[in-house]
């Protein structure tokens, strides 16, 4: 049944084909212009990840959830499918950005042997993971918000929630500075170098899991 | 006779609206019409049957609990909703590819043949369809997995008489193909039901007013048009309600023949379902 739900959303998203080509072209130009290898994965996984959430708007326009609940499926599968789509879109966006960077950088290095851009794969992977983490954070906040308040209102509520979270983190940072707590930055740097990738992956998984549980709880009790 | 749908004391409370102890059956081989004003509780009843909306009471479909056996039941049920479908941004061809993932018994050939029969283009976006085409596509989608039960919420609203007739023909054929099938059809266009339904369930303000065979309604009910003096001679138990006109009284009775013999009234009009509905809603007693 999830396959049917995915097919429906992918057919709806097919309208974004041209936009995706434009984004790829834009990112290629950005890589050439900035000679940065971190820009494309972040932008593409961000845009593709957020586009995947526009399926909620399609559902809202056609009131399709009400109809889908008459088919041999249930609310759990409906929510699960949205998360599968969001995660796959974000990861594929990141991979697409990485591949695009490798291709563009190699073409540039071939065409301009006098000005070689070093392709540091470790940085590329870390920046891609960072991009995926940031988008997964936004999606983890936005999906339950959409289930709670609808596609349009959900977006506004998401920004409010993100602002609150940023304000809390900023507040903690401010308090630490104010209270003159000594933090060994070198130790943190070493820790991040050693475990940064795993921290990003594990926290992304945890965020999605918690978000899914909240979204399902909201949708389970929602009237269509 | 076995029932494909059984509702016992189904209740549901919303802000400003309450569905109160709804009980009725949809027997096999029958078309049951659910009638009532907009907001009377027809859609809420259908949503409760399909577990789209949580309710109190017992709902059994094919003799099974509608929540416990939800997926199994929905595998054998086809649904048409007036205001909701998969997506307006799909083509009929894509609908086929999606639906075959949902139903084990999805019959692709049947679906394609129905689209041809209804003249529905396969590559055009649904949002560009006319209302009639959209409804025919919804019906083709609902019956292409050969369901035992069809639940239709306002399938003919907003359609012209020709298309409405075509759609009613589809329902007639569907029920004739297999005697274990049944249809629950909610509508406020009651004339459609006079031609195809076996039973009528009338809901008003969340309560069932009557649940009767269509024949009984059309054959036994009658409207007496009389003067005030003649009206005053009528026993209150012999009529359901009356409407006071400028020059005469119109009285609805559920037993035309008895009234005719008892009061020696010669002209008693045959009411339409709409007339009966209006007397129940607007009439006085």
Outline the secondary-structure elements.
The complex is a heterodimer of chains A (224) and B (285).
Chain A: H1 2-13, H2 17-34, H3 39-52, H4 55-62, H5 64-68, H6 75-111, H7 121-149, H8 151-178, H9 185-220
Chain B: E1 3-14, E2 17-27, E3 31-35, H1 42-49, E4 56-61, E5 64-65, H2 70-75, E6 77-81, H3 92-102, H4 108-117, H5 131-143, E7 149-153, H6 161-177, E8 182-187, H7 190-196, E9 199-204, E10 207-213, H8 214-220, E11 222-226, H9 228-233, E12 241-244, E13 249-253, H10 256-263, E14 268-269, H11 273-282
Parallel strand pairs in B: 3-8, 3-9, 6-7, 7-8
Antiparallel strand pairs in B: 1-2, 1-4, 4-5, 9-10, 11-13, 11-14, 12-13
Helix pairs in contact in B: 5-6
The number of E-state strands of chain A comes to: 0
Please give the number of β-strands of chain B: 14
Indicate the overall shape of chain B. Answer: elongated
Count of individual helical segments of chain A = 9
Question: Share of helix among residues of chain A?
Answer: over 70%
Count every helix of chain B, treating DSSP H or I runs of 4 or more residues as helices: 11
Report the order of strands and helices of chain B. Answer: EEEHEEHEHHHEHEHEEHEHEEHEH
Structural class of chain B: alpha/beta
Spans of at least 5 consecutive residues with low confidence of chain B: none
Uncertain parts of chain A = none
Secondary-structure class of chain A? mainly alpha
Distance between the termini of chain B: 36 Å
Mean pLDDT of chain B: 91
Short recap of the structure:
The complex is a heterodimer of chains A (224) and B (285). With 224 residues, chain A is mainly alpha-helical.
């Amino acid at each position: 049944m999830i396959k049917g739900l995915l097919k429906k959303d992918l057919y709806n998203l097919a309208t974004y084909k041209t936009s995706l080509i434009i984004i790829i072209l834009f990112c290629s130009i950005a890589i050439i212009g900035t000679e940065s290898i971190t820009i494309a994965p972040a932008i593409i996984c961000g845009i593709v990840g957020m586009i995947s959430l526009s399926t909620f708007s399609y559902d809202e326009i056609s009131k399709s959830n009400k109809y889908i609940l008459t088919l041999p499926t249930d609310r759990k599968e409906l929510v699960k499918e949205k998360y599968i789509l969001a995660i796959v879109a974000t990861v594929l966006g990141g991979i697409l950005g990485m591949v695009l960077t490798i291709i563009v950088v190699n073409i540039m290095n071939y065409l301009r042997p006098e000005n070689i851009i070093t392709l540091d794969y470790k940085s590329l992977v870390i920046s891609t993971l960072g991009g995926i983490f940031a988008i997964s954070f936004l999606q983890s906040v936005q999906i339950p918000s959409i289930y709670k308040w609808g596609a349009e209102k959900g977006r506004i509520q998401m920004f409010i929630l993100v602002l609150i979270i940023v304000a809390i983190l900023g507040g903690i940072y401010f308090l630490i500075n104010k209270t003159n707590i000594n933090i060994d930055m070198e130790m943190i740097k070493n820790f991040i170098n050693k475990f940064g990738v795993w921290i990003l992956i594990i926290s992304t998984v945890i965020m999605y899991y918690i978000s899914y549980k909240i979204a399902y709880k909201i949708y389970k009790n929602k009237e269509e | 006779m076995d029932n494909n749908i059984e509702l016992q004391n189904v209740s549901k409370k919303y802000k400003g609206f309450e569905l109160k102890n709804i009980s009725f059956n949809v027997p096999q081989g029958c078309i049951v019409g659910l009638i009532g004003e907009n907001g009377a509780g027809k859609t809420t009843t259908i949503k409760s049957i399909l577990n789209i909306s949580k309710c109190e009471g017992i709902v059994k479909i094919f003799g099974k609990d509608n929540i416990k056996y939800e997926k199994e039941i929905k595998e054998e049920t086809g649904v048409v909703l007036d205001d909701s479908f998969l997506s307006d941004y799909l083509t009929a061809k894509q609908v086929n590819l999606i639906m075959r993932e949902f139903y084990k018994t999805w019959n692709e050939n049947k679906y394609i043949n129905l689209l041809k029969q209804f003249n529905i283009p396969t590559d055009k976006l649904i949002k560009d369809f006319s209302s009639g085409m959209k409804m025919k596509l919804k019906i083709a989608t609902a019956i292409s997995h050969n369901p035992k039960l069809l639940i239709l919420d306002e399938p003919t609203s907003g359609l012209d008489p020709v298309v409405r007739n075509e759609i009613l023909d589809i329902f007639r054929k569907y029920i004739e193909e297999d005697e274990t099938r049944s249809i629950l059809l909610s509508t406020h266009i009651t004339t459609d039901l006079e031609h195809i339904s076996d039973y009528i369930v009338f809901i008003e303000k969340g309560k069932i007013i009557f649940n009767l065979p269509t024949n009984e309604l059309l054959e036994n009910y009658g409207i007496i048009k009389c003067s005030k003096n003649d009206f005053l001679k009528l026993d209150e138990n012999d009529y359901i309600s009356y409407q006071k006109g400028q020059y005469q009284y119109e009285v609805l009775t559920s037993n035309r023949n008895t009234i005719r013999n008892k009061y020696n009234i010669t002209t008693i009009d045959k009411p339409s379902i709409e007339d009966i509905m209006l007397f129940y809603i607007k009439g006085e007693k």
